[in-house]
Amino acid sequence: MSAVRIFVPRDAAALSVGADDVAKTIAHEAKLRGLDVTLVRNGSRGMLWLEPLVEIETARGRIGYGPVRAADVASLFDADLLDGKSHALCIGRVEDHDYFKRQQRLTFARVGVIDPLSLDDYRAHGGLVGLEKARVMTPTAIVEEIVASGLRGRGGAGFPAGIKWRTVLEAQGPQKFIVCNADEGDSGTFADRMLMEGDPFLLIEGMAIAGLATGATRGVIYIRSEYPHAIATMREAIAIARRADILNARFDIEIRVGAGAYVCGEETSLLESIEGKRGQVRAKPPLPAHKGLFGCPTVINNVLTLAAAPTILAEGGKAYAEHGMGRSRGTLPFQIAGNVKHGGLFEAPFGLTLRTMIEEIGGGTASGRPLRAVQVGGPLGAYFPESLLDTPLDYEAMAAKAGLLGHGGIVVFDDTVDMAHQARFAFDFCAIESCGKCTPCRIGSTRGVETIDKITQGQNVEANIALVKDLCTVLTDGSLCALGGLTPMPVMSALTHFPDDFRRNTLRAAAE
Amino acid sequence: MTLVSTQAFDAALVEEIARDEQAKALSFFGEACGLSAALLPILHRLQDTFGYVDDQSWPIIARVLNISQAEVRGTTSFYHDYRHAPAGRHVLKLCRAEACQSMGVEALVDHLRHHHRLNAGDTSADGGLTVENVYCLGNCALSPAALFDDRLVGRLDKARLDALVAEAAR
Ligand SMILES: Cc1cc2nc3c(=O)[nH]c(=O)nc-3n(C[C@H](O)[C@H](O)[C@H](O)COP(=O)(O)O)c2cc1C
Ligand code: SF4
Ligand code: FES
Known about the structure:
The structure holds two protein chains of two kinds. By secondary structure, chain A is of the alpha/beta class. Helices cover 42% and strands 15% of the residues of chain A.
């Protein structure tokens, strides 16, 4: 009988709740019992509340158990886990789980399924098909396939990827670059991290396709330093891809590690950072597509944008465009986070409502208390109250409600949240992370913190609220980039939807 | 588990690291490569080697890369990651961003302050632990989250926090 395959994720989130201990205990227990098992360290399926999620390969498919602690392992073996028999932690076939079944996994199709560092696994699950097709296409034909897919940048701004690639293809330069933005600084987001840890060859393939499409021969992945596991996995994957001649002198990739600056996720600041400078935002034009890294034409795209390219090439741009709604085509890996029962990664076409995402899929708050606010799109995104939960998750529909979709992170807060405190944090974060180039962002953010403090202390509340609103106008109008320009979004949404939180002192005084 | 390095400053080693990273940058970027392209990798390696970036490294790096000391200092001071003085033997980076706030990280910050007398930026009296703020570790579905050296911790609570503080004191 061949060895039974047992999967224990190596994803950082799984490790953060003890996956390594579980894997060690499984190996030890199997040895004690004289059982022949092969441990595979896969990525995460994205059902993060079930981590560590252990899976056993059986004739009936992969049976999952979770969340498993090291102390549970012996009882799993006693319940004959190798046959996939039920146990209190058994969730049945992972692919039949409701959370999983409701998704449409294009970009994350392999994540959690394969051994992330096995090129054989990658090929066996459809990997490299897109790149092989691209190799026999003209650059223009590749670019047009991306244009046809309707793919928009997944980093937040939603700019059409095909147009950007076309601009770089048409630009002249002795050297061109593909830069992958893996700075993923938004709170509530982890899709880039999960992809790099769970299917790193997909990103490599996507960048290689972008290289063929534009004539770039060098790629750089800029990964934030807060992601040591993703950095390690990507480094190993690049070394493997070089040995397999997928990366070579014609197209090669290097990793650059960030240094803890949120603003370096902004594309021009990121380029400055790779160049070894302070991460100060550049004025545009010139666009990076014309003068990017070291002044050369540069494609800069988010991890998920580049990782969508292999699927688009393999299946055709048209097939990709059939998913989604309005001008938001394809799927987005949403991330459900914060105070929510079933947090995780959920890839779906655009257009599901926030309510569906939080109540049905996320299972409501983790605390069991009523939901009060949801922040979508990271620290520069709006806070929505319960009454806006029926907003569909697509770029335009979120914008129509004075919010943004950003990188698809959804952070849930229960009724213990103090929205004046959240507005203060938005200003404080802007002050901490400002690159310093614009005065409203550098100085105004600190004024914002001070003014909110006065409001919460009950000093001239209405006048100070008016001052905060003025300050927001100045930030919106006088900022070079979205850090200063969009800090008003969380602040104003808190003021608009949760006015009482700024008047607690007055309300209390009135009641007395 | 990685301990923070406490190796003493060594000018020759700084120069060796700077030259090595510069050679790597040149070979990868080729002719397009700018003068300071190797700077962040150099600073990261210095911090990994010594636990912080010593001011005495600036002139050495500037000389190797052929840039001004002001540029080296300017870049070093821009980024939150680089420490200017040695840290404790372990570093706990506690996530203070929104998803972790929604799951009560501020109560853990208070606990560290009142129970362990540690604020962000502090190093414990025995030199065992430095506490730093960080904004998102990509573990927002299992928040509150922290990075203890290179170990990611999810669903942090007071008991687990106390255990980490005790581990650092050993
Ligand atoms: C303050 C700020 C932070 C940003 N952070 C990120 C980030 O972490 N990741 C990302 O992909 N884009 C980020 N962006 C957006 C980038 O500037 C840019 O739009 C993106 O990398 C383009 O790639 P895409 O078209 O594939 O989305 C940020 C923008 C701003 C203003
Ligand atoms: S808005 Fe802020 S972060 Fe953006 S360029 Fe201006 S100062 Fe820098
Ligand atoms: S907000 Fe704390 S890990 Fe993301």
